[in-house]
Amino acid sequence: MRIGILGNGLMAAALGEQWVRAGHDVMIGGRKPERAADLADRIGATSGSLQEATAHGEILLLAVPAEAAVDTLKSLDIEAGRTLIDCTNSINHRGFTLDEPAMAEAISQAVPHVHVVKAFNLAADAVWREAPHDFEGARLGVPLCGDDPAAVEQVGVLVRGLGCEPVFAGGLPRARLLEATAAVAIGVWAAGGDVRALFPPVGAAFGAVRPGD
Length: 213
Fold this sequence. Notes:
Elements: E1 2-6, H1 10-21, E2 25-29, H2 33-43, E3 46-48, H3 50-56, E4 59-62, H4 66-74, E5 83-86, E6 91-92, E7 97-98, H5 103-110, E8 115-118, H6 125-129, E9 134-135, E10 138-139, E11 141-146, H7 149-161, E12 165-168, H8 175-190, H9 202-206
Parallel strand pairs: 1-2, 1-4, 2-3, 4-5, 5-8, 11-12
Antiparallel strand pairs: 6-7, 8-11, 9-10
Helix pairs in contact: 1-2, 4-5
């Protein structure tokens, strides 16, 4: 698969390196060619401008800072029907609340001709760099939100390539909930809490409780 990565930061490096290892044709695009080229050399990808990476990828990963995401996309000529993975979170770190509007909504409004899929936003770059992970015999689940089934399945293929399990979490309007979950999780982690303890297995959490009890 041809993947164009827009950005050359930590998420671009972690996911890009994994996808190169899996045999995908990855191009790193950046506003500063030297930074994109440096990352590409380190992970075995090719590099170019943001527009060149956009044209290269049949699937795109948006991995620029959240505050630059919409303006970046508006500056690019993206072919209609292209799949775009949004892994961004726009979080107010003073109170760990969700900025408005939610990123997936803003991105979809900016490029309505593109199939946006929210994914990879619930874990830091180190998690993806060190994938796969095994939790008591279960693979790490990666929630996906998107309105186009074919685009969601495309991203699911990339998730499975990391040794993780794609979990369909609903249409794109539900991506706001993934972003809010990230805000809560980061706030808990920053306060010294264990986020994993918030999500026990379904049987333990609901097995003895019925709605209305």
